[in-house]
Amino acid sequence: MAVAFSTDSSEVINRSLGISPPSRTSSESVETLYEIPRCVQWVKKHGFHKVALQFPDSLLVDSTEVALKMEKETGAKVYILGDTSYGSCCVDEVAAQHVNADCIVHYGQSCLSPTSHLPVLYVFCCQPVDVEHCVQSFRKLIPDQNTRVIIMSDVTYSASINEISSRLSQEYACLVTSSLNIPDSNLDTESSTQKSEQDTDSTSTKQDSLDQDNQVICRFGRTFCLQADTELDSYSIFYIGKESLTLTNLMMGYNRCMFYSYNPDGRNCRKETLNVNKALMKRYYMVEKAKEANVVGIVAGTLGVSDYLTVINNLKEIVKKAGKKSYTFVMGKLNVPKLANFMEIDVFVLVACSENTLIDSSEFYRPVVTPFEMELACNSCREWTGEYITDFRELLPGAPSHVPMSEGTGEDETDVSLISGGMRRVGLREEQTTGSTAVVKRDDVLTVAEVNSGASFLQSLSWQGLEQKLGETDVTTAVEGRTGIAAGYTHEPGAGGDKEGPQA
Question: How far apart, in Å, do the first and last CA atoms of the chain sit?
Answer without folding.
Answer: 40
